[in-house]
Specification:
Length: about 270
Amino acid sequence: MVRIKNIKEIFFWVAIIAYLIIAFSFVSEKEKQIPCSSVDVDIIDNSHNRFIEEDDVISMIYDKGEKLLGYPIDSINLANLEDLINYNPSIKKSEVYRTIKGVLKIDIEQRTPIVRIINYNNESYYIDEQGALMPLSKNYTARVLVASGDINEPYALNYSTDILSSSKNDELKRHCVLCDIYLMAKFIHNDKFWNSQIEQIYVKNNEYELIPRVGSQIILFGDIEDFNKKFSKLKALYKQGFSKVGWNKYKSINLKYSNQIICTKK
């Protein structure tokens, strides 16, 4: 009797498993036929940067001949769509996925520029937080630090990843100016005090001049060697010296020389 009972239990569970397999197969086959009912684009950081709009993303997809609405959602190649969207230089990354109701979801994170480059040919583009180049946008102008002067690099160089990685190849000398600007801009961007103080970087004979937002003086920074220490000395001057004598007493502040700051009066 015990043996017969065990056999019945085995048949019962085999029947349950077989039913579940058939049911899941039926549901899975049915899901494959669900048409794409809508495309939902969510630009996560759109309140800060507005380089990309929802219509831009949709147009980007259809311009490449991708077929979405009305087609079986299971037939849409999600990886290809992500590659297509991520190719846009203003987009940092995207995630494309589908729901069981037939909605294609696209989540997008934009790049965050930290400096705007104006090169010798008056061509403008941005460098973002990761050191990647990105073009200006017809939709939005970012209020960031500006770098100009002796900058020869055009945007068309199209660095494969970022300028620091690219500078490790045989074109190091060609890229070093942008690398220096990126390092300084990132430091200024991440420092609350300097981000509110410095408005522009000017490149002249492989050295750098900083133009502040307040005051008419020019900061002769020199090269970027030990730039952290230079900024520390300059911050001490701003907080201890200028708070007493005022912002407009000097026409220039020279940080080129070690262990000293030379201020030239107007």
